[in-house]
Backbone:
């Protein structure tokens, strides 16, 4: 087996190389490291690993080493002992050094990779620092709840229903915390394939949350209570969105190489799950304070709603213009459609999910360059069908829950 640096040596090297960070940094870095480690834990348990997943695991292990280095400091003993940090650093470094030759020697059968994943998972589980960091990340979830839910979850419950709500809220906060890491990656334009590991954990978290809610509902003493209805709706909504996101297409992202396809899948999954959790939390928050709305709880949702509103309206206009040009492909109608398409491409197109942008742009390019009516009509027919499907998808965005579409 490949010789590796001892854990103590790794820790000493990192402490010499990395300046002691400010005290606020270690705890945030610890939460982020715990999130990535939890993603590794869920991903390593995959019963059918592949050579593509091996490369992905290696890249996340390297990320964890960098995060581990960020909060190596003697003042961190109040959270983790130095020996625990050294032990975890050794496990991470050893895993990276072994995974390199393993990846280069591929392709491997799933049996070999499964054994390696199980060995690495056992090494993580035996490290006290691993368990503490994952637990710390999970505890930080409550801090990502918006007010007044954060204060409500921290207060002493006044009734049985209050106690039930206080128990379920941190679980939603935990999912938001994990998704925040993906959102930061999207914002920073980072490579996104490693985010599939975080989604592996989010998948488990949401499945556990749905099971937990359903179990509590079976024990609810009053099915007419407002909280019962809110939790029942939350369970149903979460289960629907979970099925939409974790499709075979999403699982296939691991083996994909083209960055646009990976970006499209991750962006769509992030927005769908993030908006789902925000809408569910808004419904639960109204039990605490009936006056709250999504905008007050999540300020970023207002901008998202306004963008989606513009997108929905302009897509509907394009549907009408395309239908008109298809039925009567006269010059004025075609010109009106072309002008609307140019306007849409100059701004509103960026409000589409990335997965839809490429198809839309190819249609527009084909329409704008086609001059002969006999060639244009079939294109308009296909574009009209595509637009109607796209419009239907946009209408289903969770931000429109209280804002149904009106054609006029």
Residues:
């Amino acid at each position: 087996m490949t010789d590796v640096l001892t854990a103590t040596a790794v820790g000493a090297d990192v402490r010499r190389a990395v300046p002691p960070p400010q005290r606020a940094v270690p705890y945030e870095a610890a939460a982020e490291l715990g999130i990535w480690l939890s993603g590794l834990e869920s991903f390593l348990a995959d019963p059918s690993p592949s050579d593509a997943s091996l490369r992905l695991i290696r890249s996340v292990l390297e990320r964890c080493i960098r995060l581990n280095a960020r909060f190596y400091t003697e003042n961190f003993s109040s959270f983790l002992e130095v020996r625990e940090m050294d032990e975890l650093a050794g496990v991470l470094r050893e895993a990276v050094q072994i995974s390199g030759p393993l990846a280069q020697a591929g392709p491997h059968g799933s049996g070999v990779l499964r054994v390696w994943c199980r060995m690495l998972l056992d090494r993580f589980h035996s490290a006290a620092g691993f368990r503490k960091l994952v637990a710390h990340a999970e505890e930080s979830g409550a801090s990502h709840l918006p007010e007044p839910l954060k204060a409500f979850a921290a207060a002493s419950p006044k009734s049985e229903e209050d106690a039930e709500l206080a128990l379920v809220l941190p679980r939603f906060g935990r999912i938001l915390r994990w998704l925040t890491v993906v959102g930061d990656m999207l914002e920073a334009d980072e490579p996104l394939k490693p985010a599939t590991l975080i989604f592996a954990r989010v998948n488990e978290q949401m499945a556990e949350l749905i099971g937990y809610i359903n179990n509590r509902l079976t024990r609810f003493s009053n099915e007419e209570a407002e909280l019962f209805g809110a939790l029942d709706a939350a369970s149903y909504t979460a289960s629907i969105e979970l099925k939409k996101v974790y499709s075979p297409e999403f699982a296939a992202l691991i083996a994909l190489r083209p960055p646009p396809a990976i970006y499209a899948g991750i962006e769509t999954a992030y927005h769908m799950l993030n908006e789902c959790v925000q809408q569910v939390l808004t419904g639960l928050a109204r039990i605490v304070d009936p006056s709250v709305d999504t905008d007050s709880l999540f300020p970023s949702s207002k901008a998202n709603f306004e963008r989606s509103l513009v997108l929905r309206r302009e897509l509907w206009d394009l549907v009408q213009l395309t239908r008109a040009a298809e039925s009567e492909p006269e010059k004025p109608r075609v010109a009106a459609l072309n002008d609307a398409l140019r306007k849409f491409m100059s701004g509103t197109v960026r409000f589409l999910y990335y997965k839809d942008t490429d198809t839309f742009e190819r249609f527009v390019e084909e329409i704008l360059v086609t001059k002969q009516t006999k060639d244009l009509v079939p294109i308009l027919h296909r574009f009209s069908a595509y637009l109607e499907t796209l419009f239907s998808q946009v209408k289903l965005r969770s931000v429109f829950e209280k804002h149904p579409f009106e054609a006029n």
